[in-house]
Design goal:
The complex is a heterodimer of chains A (570) and B (418). Chain A has 570 residues and is of the alpha+beta class. In chain A, 29% of the residues lie in helices and 21% in strands. In chain A, a hairpin with a 2-residue loop joins strand 1 and strand 2. In chain A, helix 3 packs parallel to helix 7 and helix 12 packs across helix 14. Chain A starts with a helix and ends in a 26-residue tail after the last helix. In chain B, helix 4 runs parallel beside helix 5 and helix 5 runs parallel beside helix 6. The chains are: A alpha+beta (570), B alpha/beta (418). The interface between A and B is large, with 59 and 46 residues.
Chain lengths: 570, 418
């Protein structure tokens, strides 16, 4: 990387407003611009495609105050003086899977998550696709881990008792003349990227398998190894298994600062007290850069990228059994229009799009995103309609400007490990990445103390029974043991009171409406909790032996009701 | 397997009336209800105004339900409460119904079925409300459940979107409980609820109603902190730069009801895209022989009195059902009609005197409902006004029309009284 050459290119584009320099092995950009898109452009054009240097963005966005990280409103000393061997920052798929793999060892693991539940940001706000990695270039970490991760899914999901379906993925093409080129691409993938199962299927075969897809598809590229999983379900399962094996998970706990001396983190300040860990793992998603900065080890920048998905009524489940999207010849590969996916829970998911933003926690939705994605995806399946939407949500990805993961030990700070820059296919890669982070952690920890195996480690997790999927005989047997399994609370998803109480008794109890919804699905159906939310609120209150007004939707401040009406009893 | 002549699914006003009527016809009858108590949504409707048509009295919802529950109990009709139907299958004879309850899984045989499954509320996402996802966004029925059944205040200061009846009722109810209702905002240029509710629930309490306004965005990370309200154009699309922020802690939605017909669909019952309920003949039999529909599952009613009436008819018809073949012709809902029930007529039925329920597409003053058979006008009735929120009912005798299977029967609304 030649800093002068880069500066020349930047000056040509942005005048005197952007300054580039190589500092501490990073490409640091500073200055000031008025548009966020320009900052993205400046940083993206500064990426060093060959070396290990990352772009660090210090360009000020003029006239805009970038919102500070939201912090839970709890302040106490609950964790004061804790001395875990490993502190994991972030309860997404990365943090949770790392905690689980580390729980194979006889060490003290503490995972902190600032939100009221696990997987509340990107890990819970994606499409749940387990990717084949066919589109990734060789040499990237993403590409290295995607095959490894994809191949692990069957076993991991079996161990963690999480439903997973290898349903395959189609990219449909309308131009016959592209067929030889796509065939060559499949061959290239096979021999260069090691993806051996990608193949081209004929339009006739495609129609036989997926009759509702665009009849103009002349052929499709088919990836049989693609699958679907519930992304937050898997995150929760990983964390629960970690907890069962001795790890601790503390929600509503945000890292606020660090004390670093001689290239070593001495202590970590949270809203719940100061913690003294031996090793810190940075799995903080969009805030990984802030954590790196606190640890005096900031050598990359995260630029948030929003994506919105829509969920359709199960009635439209017939549209597709797998995953598909139309492939168009587009100049800008960054303009993503997502795809159509039959989720593990048998809904149809449409999306996501990709929109750059400076707001790391802005998950507010916009109709514009939905309209654009639907306009494109109606070319994948014509019967797709916005009328079938039952809900939609936005997540924020956490890419670096190199658009690759950062999985390595701290460059300047010794007892720090980064698991950063995680975006798609981060869900797919998580099982494989966790194994490598485990190795790095144990290696580092061994410098402090002797590390031995956790003799009682059990990789198997017992999930909450799903009554509606059972045979009548098995269901009756379960109800005989616990009559609450026979009382249906959520009519749309057919969830019983027994399953809700099981969720409240699960290893990581999150006694909120959203917590229960994420674990056993009341409120996920077409009435969106209209009928069941008062009932679930009451069940939670009874379980906690608290007034109904103490139950929350999610965070501590997300009050559902304000207390008794005139003359009503508590 | 236990066998009944008639199984009624749903224990609200439609289901209760159906079960009572079926039993009175001498049929062995079972009612299945998923909640612990009979009465359906009436349990939470503690306001008055129920039963004016039927009992010439102003009753509260629970009082109205109680009259039917008393009769139901006197007739010793069997009810399975806290029981959920997971599956219905058409069998060689009748239907096999699978239910789940505290006692386990049970299969029940029914000669005929009455679907009285009610309706559900349209949600915030179905009207494309965008922004964050805080606590404090309720459908009116959910807010009503919290307030009236759990005795809990869902808001201190709220905005109500949609002028459907439950929204209007909740505006008054929450005001009485000491909450501030900033206003009721309706995207349409005319109210969706009954005129009497506009007067009794809004005007009497000085709650403003804003027509041609909608909520375009919600704010708040934890609990709702405010909503953006915009004016809408004639196509109900928000007009740019008319948005203003209204601070509130709750958004209560009363933006429409959708008949619940997932069980009907599982039986391949044909649905009417206008009513979103099953296409029925004058006996309220659906396209699947032996399956009957009534109440708000059939179409959204304005008054419970009509819900009970359709329940009785469906129950009676289900009890009489013996599998005789039908010869059906369409009753078309033509110009000016939003929807019309029944949609078909069975020429082989011995009783063709039929209750017709309909709604107009728009507010129309001085107009006529007309019936044409093969293009010939055979009937007309004058109306001083018709309003979509108010369902109209009339009795009509098709006996003297000499209909045959190629007859084209169509109702429509003509403007003017001449």
């Amino acid at each position: 990387m030649n800093a002068q050459k880069l500066q020349k290119r930047l000056s040509k584009r942005f005048g005197e407003n952007v300054k580039a320099e190589i500092k501490d092995g990073c490409i640091v950009l500073s200055g000031s611009l008025t548009e966020w898109e320009d900052i993205i452009e400046a940083c993206s054009m500064s990426v060093d495609k060959k070396g290990k240097m990352h772009v660090v963005n210090d360009i000020e966005l003029q006239g805009v105050e970038i919102p500070a990280m939201r912090v839970p409103d709890i302040n106490d000393d609950y964790l004061e003086g804790e001395k875990p061997d490993v502190l994991i920052i972030g309860g997404g798929i990365s943090g949770a899977s790392i905690a689980r793999e580390l729980s194979k060892w006889d060490i003290d693991i503490l995972l902190v998550e600032k939100e009221a539940d696990l997987a509340l940001q990107a890990s819970g706000r994606n499409d749940g696709e387990v990717h084949p990695g066919v589109d990734l270039s060789k040499g990237t970490l993403k590409q290295h881990y995607v095959r490894l991760g994809n191949e692990m899914y069957g076993r991991v999901c079996e161990e963690l008792n999480v439903p997973f379906r290898r349903c395959g993925q189609y990219a449909g093409f309308c131009q016959s003349w592209l067929k030889p080129i796509v065939r060559l691409f499949a061959l290239q993938r096979k021999y260069i990227a090691g993806i051996k199962d990608t193949k081209v299927v004929s339009s006739k075969e495609l129609r036989r398998r997926e009759p509702e897809l665009n009849p103009d598809f002349r052929f499709a590229l088919y990836n049989p190894s693609s699958g679907v999983v519930c992304p937050y379900g898997l995150t929760i399962a990983y964390a629960e298994n970690a907890v069962t094996n001795g790890a601790r998970v503390e929600l509503n706990t945000a890292v606020l600062g660090m004390e670093v001396e001689d290239g070593e983190i001495k202590s970590v300040l949270t809203n719940r007290g100061r913690i003294y860990p031996k090793i810190v793992i940075n799995a903080a998603g969009v805030f990984a850069e802030e954590i790196a900065k606190m640890a005096n080890d900031r050598f990359y920048s995260i630029h948030p990228r929003r994506g919105t998905n829509s969920i359709l009524d199960k009635k439209s489940g017939y549209l597709i059994k797998s995953i598909a999207s139309i492939k168009k010849l587009e100049l800008h590969s960054h303009t993503k229009g997502g795809g159509i996916l039959h989720t593990i829970h048998d809904n149809i998911l449409v999306g996501p799009d990709a929109v750059e933003t400076y707001e790391k926690e802005n998950v507010a939705t916009n109709q514009d995103s939905i309209n654009k994605v639907f306009a494109k995806q109606k070319n994948t399946a014509a019967k797709l309609t916005e009328r079938d939407i039952i809900t939609y949500f936005t997540g924020v990805r956490a890419p670096t400007f190199e658009e690759d993961f950062v999985i390595e030990k701290g460059r300047k700070t010794k007892n720090l490990i980064h698991c950063a820059g995680i975006q798609s296919p981060g869900l797919t890669t998580a099982p494989a990445v966790a194994l490598d982070i485990e190795k790095m952690t144990i290696e580092e920890l061994s410098k402090f103390r002797k590390v031995s195996r956790n003799e009682s480690y059990n990789p198997y997790r017992k999930g909450i029974p799903v009554l509606r999927e059972m045979s009548p005989e098995k269901r009756a047997e379960m109800i005989a043991q616990n009559p609450d399994y026979g009382i249906i609370i959520c009519r749309c998803e057919e969830i019983s009171k027994g399953e809700i109480i099981d969720a409240l008794k699960s290893p990581i109890c999150v006694p909120t409406l959203d917590g229960i919804k994420k674990r056993v699905r009341p409120g996920m159906g077409r009435c969106q909790g209209g009928f069941c939310s008062p009932l679930v609120t009451k069940i939670i209150a009874d379980f906690l032996k608290e007034p109904i007004s103490e139950v929350r939707k999610s965070s501590n401040k997300s009050v559902i009701v304000y207390g008794p009406t005139k003359g009503a009893e508590e | 397997m236990k066998t009944y002549d008639v199984v009624v699914i749903g224990g609200g006003p439609a289901g209760l009336a159906a079960a009572i009527a079926a039993k009175r016809e001498g049929a062995s009858t079972l009612l299945i209800e998923r909640e612990a108590r009979l009465g359906g949504i009436l349990k939470q409707c503690i306001h008055d105004g129920f039963g004016l048509v039927r009992f010439f009295e102003k009753l509260s919802g629970p009082e109205y339900a109680e009259r039917f529950i008393d009769e139901f109990n006197e007739l010793k009709i069997k009810a399975l409460t806290l029981t959920f139907v997971t599956e219905i299958r058409k069998a060689d004879i009748g239907f096999d119904i699978r239910v789940v309850n505290k006692n386990g899984v049970e299969d029940i045989k029914a000669g005929s079925i009455v679907l009285a499954t009610g309706c559900r509320e349209r949600t915030a996402k179905q009207v494309f409300i965008h922004g964050t996802r805080p606590a404090g966004i309720f459908t009116a029925g959910t807010a009503q459940h919290f307030t009236n059944l759990l005795g809990q205040m869902p808001t201190k200061k709220c905005v109500i979107l949609g002028s459907g009846d439950i929204g209007l009722i909740m505006a008054r109810r929450l005001t009485l409980e000491g909450a501030e209702v900033v206003g009721v905002y309706e995207a349409k240029p005319t109210p969706s609820g009954l005129t009497r509710n506009i007067h009794q629930c809004l005007n009497d309490y000085n709650i403003p109603l804003y027509l041609s306004h909608t909520v375009t965005r919600v704010f708040g990370d934890d609990r709702l902190t405010g909503v953006e309200i915009s004016q809408v154009d004639e196509n109900m699309n928000p007009i740019e730069n008319t948005g203003k922020i209204v601070e509130c802690d709750a958004l209560i939605l009363s933006v429409g009801l959708i008949p619940e017909n997932e069980l009907a669909e599982s039986l391949n019952v044909e649905l009417d895209p206008k009513t979103k309920g099953p296409v029925c003949d004058a006996e309220l039999m659906t396209s699947v022989e032996g399956v009957f529909s009534c109440g708000n599952a059939l179409h959204v009613n304005d008054l419970v009195d009509y819900v009970s009436e359709s329940g009785e008819l469906a129950g009676r018809s289900a009890a009489k059902f013996s599998g005789q073949s039908r010869e059906l012709i369409d009753i078309k809902a033509g110009k000016g009609l939003l929807c019309l029930v029944p949609q078909r007529l069975n020429l082989k039925s011995d009783n063709k005197e039929t209750v017709i329920y309909f709604r107009s597409r728009a507010v129309i003053n001085n107009c006529r409902l007309t019936l044409t058979v093969d293009g010939q006008k055979v009937f007309e009735k004058k109306y001083a006004f018709l309003r979509p929120p108010e369902m109209e009912r009339l009795m009509f005798d098709f006996n003297n029309l000499n209909l045959n299977k190629s007859s084209k029967v169509q109702f429509e609304i003509e403007e003017g009284t001449a």
